[in-house]
Amino acid sequence: MHKVAVGTVDWNARREDFPILHEQAHGHPLIYFDSAATSQKPRPVIEALRNFYEHDNANVHRGLHTLSSRATEAYEKARQRVAEYIGAASADEIIFTRGTTESINLVAQAWGGKFIREENVILLTGMEHHSNVVPWQLLAERIGARLRFVPVLDDGTLDLDQLPSLLTPEVKLFAFTHISNSLGTINPVAELCAKAHAVGALTLVDAAQSAGHMPIDVRELGCDFLAFSGHKMCGPTGIGVLYGRAEVLDSMPPWHGGGEMIVSVALEKSTFKKAPHRFEAGTPNIAGAIGLAAAIDYIEHIGRPAIFEHDSQLARYAAERIKELPGIRVFGPKEERGALVGFVMEAAHPHDLTTFADQYGLAMRGGHHCNQPLMRRFGVSGTTRASFYFYNMMEEIDRMIEILHAAARFFK
Amino acid sequence: MEIEELYQEVILDHSRRPRNFGELPDAAVLVHGDNPACGDEIHLAVKFDPDGGLEDIKFTGHGCAISQASASLMTMKLKKKSREEVMGMLRAFHDLVTDETNDASKALGDLRVMQGVRKFPQRVKCAMLPWRAVEQALEQGAGEATVSTEPS
Hints:
The complex is a heterodimer. Chain A folds into two domains: 11-32 and 304-411, Aspartate Aminotransferase, domain 1 (Alpha-Beta Complex), CATH 3.90.1150; 46-301, Type I PLP-dependent aspartate aminotransferase-like (Major domain) (Aspartate Aminotransferase, domain 2). Chain A is globular, with a radius of gyration of 22 Å. Chain A has helices at residues 11-15, 43-56, 66-86, 100-115, 134-143, 163-166, 189-198, 218-221, 246-250, 286-302, 304-322, 350-358, 372-377, 394-411; strands at residues 24-25, 28-29, 31-32, 94-97, 121-125, 146-150, 171-177, 202-206, 225-229, 240-244, 262-265, 270-272, 328-331, 340-345, 362-363, 365-367, 383-387. Chain A contains 14 helices and 17 strands. Chain A is an alpha/beta fold. By secondary structure, chain B is of the alpha+beta class. Chain B has one domain (3-147): Alpha-Beta Complex (Sufe protein. Chain: A). A four-stranded mixed β-sheet of chain B has the order 3-2-1-4, with helices on one face. In chain B, α2 crosses α3 (65-78), α3 crosses α5 (124-140) and α4 (83-98) packs antiparallel against α5. The chains are: A alpha/beta, B alpha+beta. Chains A and B meet through α12 of A and loops of B.
């Protein structure tokens, strides 16, 4: 087997860390090309969850007993680990949520509810996932504010020439994705943040597709908020992160009310803790946070630059090979792209193609990828998406091409 | 499960060359059916006979092979059928594509090639979309209507 040569990482050994990759589907070895939807989990993450439940499980921040101390310590250490991972100045800037979607909703409701007024504009892009569109639609409808969108060019990049006319002083927030989940486009985050700040707007970066794939430093990027999910980066489902710059978080009212986020409660009125605990009402996903910290340790042990290079090689190779197929249209930028390739095959609808592929053990996603406006912009109802992670191999892409050729013959 | 059990040659043929595909200018009712999760669309036009049966039925639309073939096969089957026959066929077809233990009703004839769908629960909506549209057409009787596999 030929390996992708990146540094000294033994990718075959890393693949062996993922027990699920030994599964079969319809009698064929599983080829898992759906990591943009959710990644698989390595043994150290599975063991961290098990270890927590077998040895340390208790509620956090309230018990005075041994287990509660251990659980609290592990939970807060996880917060510190996340802060280091994204270059935050302090662990107080890290709020644990259920995932990217909840993180964005938190900003829309707590920050947007206080600071967005009727005359304001929220600037988004035409390639946003529904989770970075719908929360702003709900807010704009409630307040009477307006939404604007940076258009997407044919090559899958943002039309930055339009930015000066869109990014006007009425814009209070520019929220955009780091990596497009259906095009693979990598947006110039630092440049966009600088331009937004120049007109006095804050920025929110949807890092769902980037957090597990490339180095991220929030202070270098200069963003005010950054949202991502644990489950797309080797962590468990149901845990995610909202990073908020300290000064911004401190200006925000609470979001959910309940236990854990208060200093004191009287019958008529309560006082609230500071960030991050102000935004974490109720018993949090303690095991999830600990699992996420284990995922970060695991990823950092490999190294994000190596992961990025490995994934990029797979994506470039896949995009090249897919073009060999008859009647094919590949979406997204030619040069740099994230770890995925979206395409349509003239002969087969994405759902027929993914059903066909599944019969040969190949897991891909077909459909609109929670990107309906973007699909409309490209004049398709959906695409087929093959998405990769560091446990995937070149040989699997070769096998995918064989299966796609068979599909082209079958459906033509 | 072989892929050929789902995509039988008849189904592939109907998806490539759908029958009764086109406009029906003097239709009594036009139903726009969609499957938002997939983007499948069926625009079903129906003309009734004096007794309320299906005088003529045509469709346009786009989507996966299953939804388009299902529409094509359905229109062939339902033309000139009475209201009661259509409703009976609708129930039988639903059982055919959802019920693992169902013995395909002989009355369904050609439609029985769709039986493979029952092994693919995610694809049942695709197969049922044109049938939801015809059900809506009968209920509506006249004018235009929409029907979705994801009611909002």
